[in-house]
Design brief:
The chain is mainly alpha-helical and 115 residues long. The protein has 2 domains: 57 residues, no CATH class; 56 residues, no CATH class. Helices cover 32% and strands 8% of the residues. The protein has a two-stranded antiparallel sheet.
Length: 115
């Protein structure tokens, strides 16, 4: 990005396409500026959201399902129940699935830490 586009005598370099390099540099600088603006705006918004004492209007969770790991938009004690997406009929003993699945109810299973 900082390599000179002219030779020591001041003429355009013959070993590169000066026009294409210049055009690419301008495009990259424009993208960097746009990225910096977006990051700055995002930072200001996050500061407002997480400001001490800030009041944030709760989102409506109507019609949303809680994610399996409990981090979803409907997570919390008053959220709607988790809707099962699969039914496990058999888990072999001493298999990775046997250590990953613990029974919450006979008809529902919760996936625990798989690592």
């Amino acid at each position: 990005m900082t390599t000179p586009l002219v030779d020591p005598e001041g003429f355009p370099r013959a070993d590169i396409d000066v026009y294409a390099v210049r055009h690419a540099r301008v495009s990259l600088n424009r993208l960097r500026n746009d990225h910096r603006d977006v990051v700055d705006r995002l930072g200001r918004v996050l500061e407002q959201v997480y400001a001490v004492g800030a009041v944030v209007e709760p989102r409506s969770t109507e019609g949303e399902e809680k994610m399996v790991n409990g981090d979803g938009p409907g997570a919390g004690p008053t959220s709607t129940p988790i809707r099962p997406i699969a039914r496990v009929n058999l888990v072999s003993e001493n298999s990775p699935a046997a250590t990953a699945v613990r029974s919450a109810r006979p008809d529902r299973h919760s996936i625990t830490d798989l690592h």
